[in-house]
From TrEMBL:
This is 5'-nucleotidase SurE. Its cofactor is a divalent metal cation. The lineage of its organism: Bacteria, Pseudomonadati, Pseudomonadota, Gammaproteobacteria, Cellvibrionales. Belongs to the SurE nucleotidase family. GO terms for cellular component: cytoplasm. The keyword NADP does not apply. Its main location: cytoplasm. GO terms for molecular function: 3'-nucleotidase activity; 5'-nucleotidase activity; exopolyphosphatase activity; metal ion binding; nucleotide binding. The gene is surE. Keywords: Cytoplasm, Hydrolase, Metal-binding, Nucleotide-binding. It comes from Kineobactrum sediminis. Binds 1 divalent metal cation per subunit. PANTHER family: 5'-NUCLEOTIDASE SURE (PTHR30457), 5'_3'-NUCLEOTIDASE SURE (PTHR30457:SF12). Residues 9-189 form the Survival protein SurE-like phosphatase/nucleotidase domain. It is an enzyme of class 3 (hydrolase).
Length: 259
């Protein structure tokens, strides 16, 4: 199946079920597909990564036909959709559209990426979608809106390997300024993208905020970061198997010893 129209689509995000990105994604998909489900967190869960709520109950709230808000993480949303909500499994999971990029090292913390990864673990094709924007400027949603269907259907035409998923980022430019599409690898930023900021409350007790403030650099050719610099849409295939093959070979021959 290569067209959105051929699929039963599950849409999940980490920005929350009322976020503009997921509303835009649903609008776009519904123009091409009749069988669409939206199952998303009831509030923002950015940075939740692949967390699962194992020690607190997960509660569901029906907001409308095939619209369910989940009191839990993005991964919880996928699990609940597949195990409790949908009578038939989806044939495609779309994560997003995230407000902001999921590039380079950021993918390890992203709830959007976790949605696609959980779907891949469950054997369902999945694509993560993010709209990059420049801080202090409007989010160029028109870029995602114009190109999303074409890029997604080209990915579906090529196929998504078992145990893999695809991470797509739309650049922080208007739709007319997009230079093209680049198939890329995951970039790497300089260390220390997350910063901590200490404050003191009115009882003189210290507390801290953690925020993402990546340093410039790391935009090598052929990476998702470079694609953003080039005003191109990045398409990055990822996999759930994180084995380092070269190191695996170098460690062969280890033996048991004492002392």
């Amino acid at each position: 199946m290569t067209r959105l129209a051929d699929h039963r689509v599950l849409i999940v995000n980490d920005d929350g079920i009322h976020a503009p990105g997921i509303q835009l994604l649903e609008k776009i998909v519904r123009e091409h597909c009749k069988d669409v489900w939206v199952v998303a967190p009831d509030e923002e869960k950015s940075g939740a990564s692949h967390s699962v709520s194992m020690h607190t109950p997960i509660r569901l709230r029906q907001l409308g036909d095939r619209h369910i808000a989940i009191k839990g993480s993005p991964t919880d949303c996928v699990l609940m959709a597949l195990r409790e909500i949908m009578q038939e499994l989806p044939t495609l999971v779309l994560a997003g559209i995230n407000r902001g990029g999921n590039l380079a090292d950021e993918i390890h913390y992203s709830g959007t990426i976790a949605v696609a990864m959980e779907a891949a673990l469950m054997g369902i094709p999945a694509i993560a979608l993010s709209q990059v924007f420049e801080r202090g400027k409007d989010v160029p949603w028109d870029t995602s809106e114009r190109y999303l269907v074409s890029v997604v259907e080209q990915v579906l035409e090529c196929g998504i390997a078992d145990g893999s998923f695809v991470n797509i980022n739309f650049p922080p430019v208007s739709a007319d300024a997009v230079s093209g599409v680049q198939v890329v690898s995951m970039g790497r930023r300089p260390p220390g993208a997350f910063k901590t900021e200490g404050r003191v409350d009115n009882r003189q007790i210290p507390y801290y905020w953690v925020h993402l403030e990546p340093d410039a650099g790391g935009d090598l050719d052929g990476t998702d970061l470079r694609a953003m610099t080039d005003a191109a849409i990045s398409v990055c295939p990822l996999q759930v198997d994180m084995t380092h093959r070269a190191m695996l070979s170098s460690l062969v021959g280890m033996r048991l010893s004492q002392g």
